[in-house]
Hints:
Elements: H1 5-44, H2 49-64, H3 67-76, H4 78-82, H5 88-113, H6 117-125, H7 130-160, H8 172-183, H9 187-221
Helix pairs in contact: 1-2, 1-5, 1-8, 1-9, 2-5, 3-5, 5-7, 6-7, 7-9, 8-9
Amino acid sequence: MNxxxxxxxxxxxxxxxxxxxxxxxxxxxxTLASLAGLALALCSRSKVGMLQRTxxxxxxxxxxxxxxxxxxxxxxxxxxxxxxxxxxxxxGALALGAIGAGYMxxxxxxxxxxxxxxxxxxxxxxxxxxxxxWMRIVLPQALSRMRPAILxxxxxxxxxxTLLAGIxxxxxxxxxxxxxxxxxxxxEPLTGxxxxxxxxxxxxxxxxxxxxxxxxIVTRSL
Length: 222
């Protein structure tokens, strides 16, 4: 089968519209995962043993469930449980956000644990309010250390969002499937999807590497 460049350029606008849906769902899912992951990470450091164990268990359960299973369960089962009609985009974002919360909680927890003990002790010795310790000392340093992992996980969520084509979400993968199904020619549509993902993911991965290298330099200088 010869590669038809003109066909690829002809379907690019359709793939680009699908990519916008992919980016939209990815952003919503990543935001949900970040907020829930932050909450889980903070609760996991609680001095209340039951709360700490419960949040750690929730994170472990979330990380053990395959994304595809979560997507199908959210799409086919959750509407019956809550008694509401939910779109594929909403179900997909909820599923990826719930699974992502488990991973983001570990990223946040690792960033917090990387803050030097001396900074905690100095802030405590100065009798700073707890909220100020977290907002002015702990979280800024933790965020600096988390940035490479956060960017990497964002790209993971984006790639996993192609699974939403299985529930009819009109993302870039679904657009490629529909285009290929018209004449059973999938080479150009799927190649276009790969190119679009490369154009988005590769710059983010390079940025992540630069941030990681910069953080390593700062860490060695301390």
